[in-house]
Request: fold
Amino acid sequence: MANERFKSVSVIIETRDLNKIYEGALRGQDVHALKNLNLAVNSGEIFGYLGPNGSGKTTTIKMLLGLIFPTSGSIEILGTTDIAAAKVKRNIGYLPEGAYYPDFLQGEEILRYYGRLYGLAGAELNNRIDAVLELVGMTFARKRLLRGYSKGMRQRIGLAQALISDPQILILDEPTTGLDPIARKEIRDILARLRDEGKTLLISSHELLEVELISNRVGILFDGVLQTSGTLDDLLTTREVLIEVDNVSPQSIEVIEKAGFRIEDRVHQRMKLRVPEGRSTYEALELCKNQGLTLVGVMPRRETLEELFVRVIGAAEAERRKAS
Reply:
């Protein structure tokens, strides 16, 4: 059964005023897991969906998959609100965190089982198995029992499972957690390739560096509320500037430190001084010039996604404490 493709839409996943209340879930009290969530994931992008434990990420994913239902609000996927339709389900691939498969099965058998669940059979299924195994670099281990797979190999076969129906959407929960640096790089390259081929990926992860390396946009969730959302260029601010200079002396270092600029990475007569947020780069440059130092370079330092995450969550926690 060929996977039915939807007509092109610019927004692949959209939620409007989405709420989820678990009644009596906490000592008989209701838990408001999601609060008026308005989320948009665009076609052909990797969207990093971030938040601390208990923020509502898993609840969101379960609702997108149709495993649980909203208390109020709406979900639109691939231009339709009928997200329970089989043609929608066939166009969503899902890799849960810590996906477990029977270890007495071969990698190929796992894919054949899931392919049949999607309605694939015969030559079409065989072709898809060949294609996804090649994509994730697991052709060599297709006949090997899963009990002989490393964690990285298990993650790859899980990704192959999510891709077996050739879906337009991939929802991935912690796809690189627990993997070694080489395996992370390999998975990251595969995800970037899938995006470049036109697939849309929603990735929930605590591995913020991995998300920063491949995401087009991110959203940060806290206490069921989407705190911020946008491109990394829009969200990450320039926090500090590094100025690299040469021909430094003990006297010039003393003057620079007394002026409140931190010195780091000093090697012989070359060093970098850090201009913190709120201080004037021009002032630091003039100070270096007056000390007779040779300017090597000026390097703005943008905050990392981790720093943005801590800043946004910290502000949200402060607001919650103020309100309570």
